Structure formats: structure tokens, C-alpha cells
Amino acid sequence: MDLLALMAVFVRVSEAGSFTSVAEETGQSQPTISRQIAALERHLGARLINRTTRALALTEEGAGFLERARTALDAVAEAEATVGRRRLQPTGQLRLATPVAFGRLHIVPRLGRLLARYPELSLDLVLHDGASDLVEEGIDLAIRIGTISDPTLVARQIGETRRVTVAAPSYLARVGTPVVPADLTNHDCIVYTRLATGSLWRFETSSGAIDVAVTGRFRANNSEAVREAALAGLGIAVVPTWLLADEIAAGQLTVLLQDFEPKRLPMHAVYPSRRYVPPRTRAAIDFFVTEFRLDPAFSSAIL
Questions:
Q1: Which fold, 3-81?
Q2: pTM of the model as a whole
């Protein structure tokens, strides 16, 4: 019996709260995962997980064993990373999470260079616009845009996102063009609901910030939907320049309020706050810092 392997399965089942999700993640069957947990319980002589038809719950013994198992697995990984070529060459699978549109446009095209640099590294990319629970979903590293407020995460800024205010020419012909931010209160504004400030849009000027509470008949929790709505003439949107630079250049969207720039958003690489960070995670963070520092569309003066 590989005790460390069983401990790793137990930790993931505890974090995910599901045999099925861990089975899918590891390419095994649900009964196999269940048998591995049962084998660990027999070895320890204690029940670790109470199973019901709807949920899993750690027993008191299971909750106590979980933290010790995490510590043991981290210690083994750290010991491996300090020996021989593992210290020099990141290996294993990196589970990386990014927002959907940003991942499609600006992460996936860069991954070939990352994999070429580290031949023993593999990637499992998770595209998700929400603030997923990194531990529960087994995420090693996530790229997030905006302020990081979760104290359980470690964040390193890798760049910043510039935004612009846009609308389709068809919308402007029908409704008119705003001249100052306050004019937006008389327009249909397309609200991206995952933005921390929601329908409160902040603009930066030489004399200070201007906040405008906007309204509109279309809201979405996905940046691709906001992009399509703007192109369809449904209203005015504040969007990242990386999302629709081609459409602006082609005249499909008009940049508005050019003397009033929407507040820029920081981009971070984040990972769970634990004592040990695997070499593959550190290597990926350093890679993205370099990539976005060299890209004028994302470079930040503080890097």
C-alpha cells in the first residue's frame, strides 16, 4: 500500500467534498477512490469520512488527520524538490485557472513557450469567470483581474489591465454621444456584474476620480457577453482593451470619454497560502511576470 498516495487522495476528497469530482480529476473511477479511502481508514483504524447519499463530512478523527496529512505531503514535496534535477526542473501537472476570455486570448497563446521551457511540466487549464475556491477545486495557480481581498491567498501582481468606454456606432447614432462621465446616467450602460464595483463606474482624471452610478437594461456575468452586447448596439460598456482591440481598430466600436480613463485593474497570480509552494507553481508565476512585463498592453510601472 502506498500510504502517501492514499493520503493525497484523502486530502483531495476532503477539499472537494466529493468522490466523483476527484475521480474525474485523477482519471479513476468513483469506486476506486472510495476503496482507497477505505484502505486508508483500515490502515489507521479510524473512520475519517462519514458518507451519505448527498454529502461527505469529515469525522473528528478525519479533521485532525487532514492537517497532518497536508503537512506530510508538503514536506515530501519539498524534500523531493531539493534533490537532484527536481530542484532545477519543474515537473508534474500544474492546474491553472484563468477568466474565460482572458485565458482564451492571452494565456493559451503563451502556454507553448511555458511547456517548451519545462519539458516535464504538464498543464490542466480551468477557464472560469468566477472567484473559484482554489483549495476546493485543486487549483495550483490562478490568474485574476482586480483587487484580491481573500486573506487565504498569496497574490503577486503580474501586470495591469487598461480599460476604455465604448459603444457601437449604431447605438450612438440612435441615442447620442456622452461628453463627460455624468452623461452616462442618461444612457443604457452594459454592466459586468463580476466587477467588484458593479454598476458604479470610476474614471480617473488629472484632478481626481469621478464615480458614476450607471443603469441599463442589460447585465452579464461574462466579459464575452458584454463584448457581444456592445457590438450589437445594446448600450455603452467599460471593457478591457485586450478584449476588443481589433473591433475598435475596425471601427465596429467607438472609444468614448477619452479624457476620462476608467480605473485600471491590477492582474495577479494567486495561489493558496501554504508553507510550501511547488517549483512548478513558482516557475509559472515567474514566467507570467516576465511575459506580461514585456507586453506593453499589460506592463505595470510597479513591477
A1: Arc Repressor Mutant, subunit A (1.10.10)
A2: 0.71
